[in-house]
Fold these 2 entries.
Entry 1:
Amino acid sequence: MISSFIAAFMIGVLGAGHCIAMCGGISGAIAHANKQTTQSNSLAPLFYNLGRITSYTLIGAIVGLTAQIGLNFGAGYDFLVILRFVSGMTLILIGLYIAQLNSAILQLEKVGRLLWRFIQPLARQFLPLKTPYHAFPLGFLWGWLPCGLVYSALTLALSTGSALSSALTMFAFGLGTFPIMFLVGSFSTKFNSLIQNTKFKRFSGLLLVLYGLHIIYIALVQLSAYGI
């Protein structure tokens, strides 16, 4: 579903500021490694983000396969539309959080903390980076960090109803976060002032709210077609 890919990409672009807030420490560590080791470590931000996008794609495939199995066992298309509605609601919450207007989304991020307790120690073993290539497994593991923005994209991916489409949706989401995350990883000091700017946070956050409302509107129209 092309619309899901575009939507996921836009979620990544508009919510990249939240990604920076969540992963800023790791990005800083990578930037520090670049300054302290050889010039070849300028590849570290690239490999870190490739690892992160790979993990998003894998998670998308897993949840998409779950939806696909559910559909094969009788779950209706209306269930997928409801998931799209939930995705819109999550987008609104993440947008309000980024705009510094509401922090309710932080409750959702607690969902993945149990799993993160096991993954985080593994990720920490790759710090400090010995080579730029170690940034790939670091990024892959860090991609499992509990994040409301990722969960919002996942509900959208889940609503595609197939493992392949869900994986591609999360890949598109990862691509949306890539540009600014890569730049911050490479030039963190130059982008810090922009990221921390209140107007920038309000603008990107409110755009996500508007996009969430748009997704909810579409879901309501689709649900009305089913008489729900």
Entry 2:
Amino acid sequence: MLLCYLDESGDEQPLRTRTDPPVLVIGGLIVDSSRAQALVWDFLQLKKQFNPILNREETKLSEVIAFEMKGA
């Protein structure tokens, strides 16, 4: 079975200023279900790598899962 992960960034609102980027991006990733668990664990490791607070010994798995990393 294939699984599809979708995400969006930006918005569809009209431009508010001349410098606002008119962008709405929708991305998807299709993964075979037999590989999904490894993908999730690798993603959690990336979150820990890029946010050292999540990489402490006392950090619980639920905290790593719940933490949202937003771009700028």
